[in-house]
Amino acid sequence: MATILRRPHTVARTSRHLLDAASLSQTLARRPASFPRPPFAYACSRSYATPKKSDQKGKPAKGTEHLYGKSSPMSSPQPPSSTTPATPTPDAAPSQPPPTNKLEPGMDKLSQTEEENLDYIIDLVKKGMPKSMAQELDAVASRLKKEGVPTEMHEVMKEVMEKGMSPGRAAKLWRLTGPLARQHVEREKEEQAATPQQKTSSDPGPQQNNIKGEEGPRPQEQEQQGQQQRNSGEEGQQKKKDGQKKKSEDMFANMTEIKFDMSNFLVSAFVAYLLYRLVVPTENSREITWQEFRNTFFDKGLVEKLVVINSNRVRVYLHRESVAAMYPESPAAQAGFFYYFSIGSVEAFERRVDEAQAELGIPSSERIPVSYHSETSWSNTILAFGPTLLFIGAILYLSRRAASGAGGGQGGIFGMGRSRAKKFNHETDIKVKFSDVAGMDEAKMEIMEFVSFLKEPGLYQKLGAKIPRGAILSGPPGTGKTLLAKATAGESGVPFFSVSGSEFVEMFVGVGPSRVRDLFANARKNTPCIIFIDEIDAIGKSRAKQSFGGGNDERESTLNQILTEMDGFNTSEQVVVLAGTNRADVLDKALMRPGRFDRHIAIDRPTMEGRKQIFNVHLKKIVTHEDLDHLKGRLAALTPGFSGADIANCVNEAALIAARTSEESVKVTHFEQAIERVIGGMEKKSLVLSPEEKKTVAYHEAGHAICGWYFQYADPLLKVSIIPRGSGALGYAQYLPGGGADAVLLNMRQMMDRMAMTLGGRVSEELHFDTVTSGASDDFNKVTRMATAMVTKWGMSQKIGYIYYPDSSESQEAALTKPFSEQTGRTIDEEVKRIVNEAYEQCRELLVEKKKEVGLVAEELLAKEVLSRDDMVRLLGPRPWESKGEFDKYFGGGSTSPKQTEEGLGKNPGGIGDNAPSDAGSGSGLPPGLARGPDPEGAPSLYRREQ
Ligand SMILES: Nc1ncnc2c1ncn2[C@@H]1O[C@H](COP(=O)(O)OP(=O)(O)OP(=O)(O)O)[C@@H](O)[C@H]1O
C-alpha cells in the first residue's frame, strides 16, 4: 500500500488499468454479479406459497425452459471461481463475523457479504494487471477489511446494494472516499514507522514486491535499506537513530506528496466500477414476461412487493432468502438484482394482479403491495445533459485556446482578432527572385527601389528622403502581382507577410480592424519586412461607392485602420506594404495618396516579348527536346492575351498531355493542344451532332474562315475545327493576331473587317441553307458591342460626334439613368444599326463572290473536322495579304507579299453555337475590357486605360 502511495505514476497506471478493466465489457457482460446471497433464513416465505418440490429446485418453471437457452431466469451463469460464495444454509446466521480487531470510533466493520463483494470487485479489476499491482490492490482490500469503513459510507453502501446507484449516492461515496484514503495513508505510515525492521525482513510484503517488480527500489529506499542493514551490524546506536530520523522525514515527505494521488486512485477505482456498471447495466436486472413472473415467482409466493416505474415497467422485489433457498443458483437471490417486466397500461396491470391474487385466494390483507415510482435513467440524464455539457466543453476549449494563443490583449474573443497573415521566412521560404519573374521590366524597375530601400535605408535617409510606404500592384488576374511581391521580398532578404484582403472580413464586428492592428504589430516586430495584401479591393473599395445602398461599416473601419496604421509608420520603420488588386479603379482615393500607397504599378498582360520570356521561365521546368528559341516564339505568338498564369497553366497542361501518351518529352503538338484546351475548353467527344447540324456548323465556320482569309485587315486563320468544345461551342476557329505583333490601336477599317468576319458565319448559313440557326447569337453580341462602342465612345459616328457616353459598368449614374436624351438614344440606335448593316453588306458581298471557296472549305471540314493553315493554303492558295509581325517565322509562308503594316488582331473562336458563356467566346473585334477569358488582343490595352 505504501509503495502505491509513494508513486504518483504507479497510481496513475493503476487507475488506467482499472478503467481498462472496466471497459472489458464483452467479457464481463457475460459474468454475473455474483454477490453472495444473504444468508437469511427463508422464514418469511408466505404460507400460501406453492409447495416446494425438491426436483424443481434450481430449475425454471414449466414452460419457460426455452426462454434462456440452456439457462433459465432461475439459473445464474457460473460465477468466478475465486469468489463463489459458499451456498448459504437456511439456518446460516446473517450476522457479521465476530470482530477480531478493535475498530476506531466511527468505523464499521464490513459484513461478510460486503467483504466477499469487495473481493469480487478487486478480483475483477485485477484481471490483466501486473502482479505487483494486483498485490497492491489486495493490500487495499485487506486494510479495508481490517479497519472497516466510516459508518456514513457503510450506510450509503448498503443503500446502493438495496436500491441501486443514484447520482446522489455516487456523489456521497465520492465525497467520503477522500478522507478514507488519507486515513489509510497515515495509518500505513505510522505502521511502517513503528516496525522499521520489517522492511528488511527476508519475506518482503506486497509493497516491496511492487517496487522490485516495477522499477527497482527508489534511491531513498535503497538508502533506507542500506542504513538498516548497517544498523543491524556493528554501527552504533547514534547512527541507528539518525537513520530512523531520516526515514521518518522521507516518509513524511512521501505522505504529503501522495495524499492526493491516493484519493485519486480510490476515486478512479470507484469511477471505473461505476463505468463498469453503466456499461453492463443488465447485470443487475433482467427482463421477464408476465407468464414467467407468474409461474416462477408469483404463484410460489416469492414476491415481496411490486414497484411500477414510469407507468411502463414493473420492478419485482422478491423475498431473497426464500428465493435463495428455492433457487440457490439464481441471480435473483443476490442483493441488488431485480427482475422486471413491461406493462401496457397501469390499469391492465392492476387488473391482472388482482385476478391473479384472487385465483390464488390471497386474502386482501395479505395482498402484495404495489407502489408507483417515476425514475430517470442514467442514460436519459446523460442524454438530457449532453448538449449542455458539450456546449460548456466547447466554450472551455475555445477560451483555453484563445488564452493560450492570444498571448495578450490582441487576441480578442477566441483569437478572432488575430491576423491570419502567413509569414514567409526570407531564409527558407522565399526562393523567388526577380529572374523568376519574366517580362514586366518596368514594374520590376519601379519595385526595385523598395528593395534598395530595405537593403540600404541609410542611403536615402542621409539625404532626407522619405521612404515610400508602399505600392499598389494592379492588373488582370494571374499577371504575376503576387509573384512580383514575393520576388521583392526574396531579393531584399526580408520576411514576407502575405494576407488576402478578404481575410480581414469576418462576420463579427471589430474583427477586421483588430486583425489589421495585429498584422502591423507583428510586422513591426520583424522589421525590416514586407507586407503583401492581396485582393485589397475586398476592403479598400471606395467608401463613397460603398455607401450607396447601405454601405458596410465593418469594411470601412477596416480600411480606416489600414490608413491609420500606414500613417502611423515611423519613416525609419522599414515596413513596406505592397497590395495587389484587379480593380485599382474602385479603390478608395485615400489609399492612393502619397504617404500611403505612394506608388501605383500597373501590370498588364504580357506582350509578345513578355510571353516569350514567361514561356522561357516555365519551359525550363519541363522536359522538351524542341528548339527552345523557336518554340517559345511560336507559343508566344499563339497565345495573345494570355496572362502569366495562363502560360504556366498551358506549359503544365502540355506536360500532362505528353505524359498521358507516355512520351519521352513534350512536343510542339502537345503545347498546341494545351493552348486549344485553355482557349476553347475540353473537346466534347460525348456531344454527337446530327449530319445536318454538323453541315451547318461546317458552313458557319467556313464563312468565318473565308472572311478571315480574304479581308485585308481581318485576322489570318490558323486553325478551324468543328469538334465541339467547352460549354456550348460547337465550332472553333483560331486566328492569328498580327503575327504576334502587339498592336495598341485599332483603326476603323480593322473594326469593319472584324465585324464583317464575325458576321461571316451567319451570312454563310443564309447563302447555303434555306433557313438559319440560333448559333450566331454570340457573334451578334460581339458585333453590337463593338458598333455601340464605335458610336458612343470612339467618336466614329458623324451623327453622334465626338462624345463619350459611359456605360452602366463605368458609372453608377449611368446605371440608373442613361447619360443621353431619348432623342440621342434613338440616334445611337440608328447609327449602331447602320454600322452593323454595313459590315453585313461587306461580308455578304465577299461570301457571294467566294461561295465556291466556302463550299470547298466546308466540305473539307466535314471530311477532316480540323483544318490547319496549310490546308487552307492548299485549298485556297496563299493568302492575298501579307502577314504581320513574326508570323512567317513561326508559321511558315502562306502570304503573297512581305510585311506591310503593324496591326494587332485576335483569334476568333466565334463559331456557331458558342453563344454560351465559354472561353471560346473571347472573340474578335471586342472593344477593350469587353472580351471574356484570355484577352485575344494586344491592341485594346490602350483603350482600357482611357476608359
Ligand atoms: N511574369 C511572370 N513570370 C513568370 N511566371 C509568372 C508571371 N506572371 C505569372 N506567372 C505565373 O502565374 C502564377 C500566378 O501568378 P500570381 O499569383 O502572381 O498572379 P496574381 O497577379 O497575383 O493573380 P491574382 O490577381 O489572381 O492574385 C505564378 O505562380 C507564376 O507561375
Automatic annotation (TrEMBL):
Subcellular location: Mitochondrion membrane
Chief localization: mitochondrion
Gene Ontology MF: a single term: metalloendopeptidase activity
Record's compositionally biased regions (Basic and acidic residues): 52-68, 183-192, 212-221, 232-248
Keyword check for Transferase: no
InterPro entries: AAA+_ATPase, AAA_lid_3, ATP-dep_Zn_Metalloprotease, ATPase_AAA_core, ATPase_AAA_CS, FtsH, P-loop_NTPase, Pept_M41_FtsH_extracell
Keyword GTP-binding among record annotations: no
Listed name of the protein: Peptidase family M41-domain-containing protein
Species in which this protein is naturally found: Neohortaea acidophila
Lineage: Eukaryota, Fungi, Dikarya, Ascomycota, Pezizomycotina
